[in-house]
Amino acid sequence: MLEQLPVVIEPLRLAEAGRQLHGRLPLVGFKRLAPALHEVRGEVEVELGFGKDELHIAYLRGHLRTRLQIICQRCLQPMALPVDVEFALGLVTTDEAAEQLPADYEPLMVSGPMELAEIIEDELILAVPFVPMHPAGQCPAQEGQEDRLEDKPPHPFAVLARLKKPQ
Ligand SMILES: [Zn+2]
Questions:
Q1: Structurally, how many domains does the chain consist of?
Q2: What is the domain extent for residue 110?
Q3: Run of H or E residues at 119
């Protein structure tokens, strides 16, 4: 069920209580994500589950779904990047505890109340590929690539190869 997501959360308390949160956040609030986007619009659907596992590790598991408006780095056209990511954060209060977390958790350092949007924004930033591109076969720059080969300037290595040829 959708509810209003709290602005500030106390992750360890929520983990003790085994709380579930489900709601939406507008992307316009994410100032650190904005430079990676072509256009800031839409929302992210957020599903969060807090709890403690069998090793008594407090965790936050999340599922984020959204579409980010970005620029394809192959054709330089705007595109909608579907994002559907799950994450598992181990809630820790010390560096030692962070190092001891099982490999299926990323550490989240917790020291009291935290802004929920900050946690969500971090995960969205991780979800954007370093070089975002249309999926194979859907990029306009890929079509007719064969035809346009002749228009391209020579590859720098091709020039080098010519220079290295014995006189
Ligand atoms: Zn493209």
A1: 1
A2: 8-164
A3: helix 116-127
Q: What is the pLDDT along the chain (167 residues), one digit of tens a residue?
A: 556 899 999 999 999 999 999 999 999 999 999 999 999 999 999 999 999 999 999 999 999 999 999 999 999 999 999 999 999 999 999 999 999 999 999 999 998 999 999 999 999 999 999 899 998 889 998 765 544 444 555 555 555 555 555 54
Q: Does residue 3 fall inside a structural domain?
A: no
Classified as helix, coil or strand, 151 is helix
> What distance in angstroms lies between residue 159's CA and the mean position of ligand 1's atoms?
28
Q: How far is the CA of 78 from the centre of ligand 1 (A)?
A: 8
Ligand 1 centroid distance, CA of 130 (Å): 14
What are the residue ranges of helices labelled H in 36-83? none
pTM: 0.80
Domain presence at residue 2 = no
| Ligand 1 center from residue 156 Cα (angstroms) | 24
Of 40, 38, 35, 30, whose CA–CA distance to 124 is shortest?
Answer: 30
| Nearest alpha carbon to residue 81 among 108, 111, 44 | 44
1 part of a folded domain? no
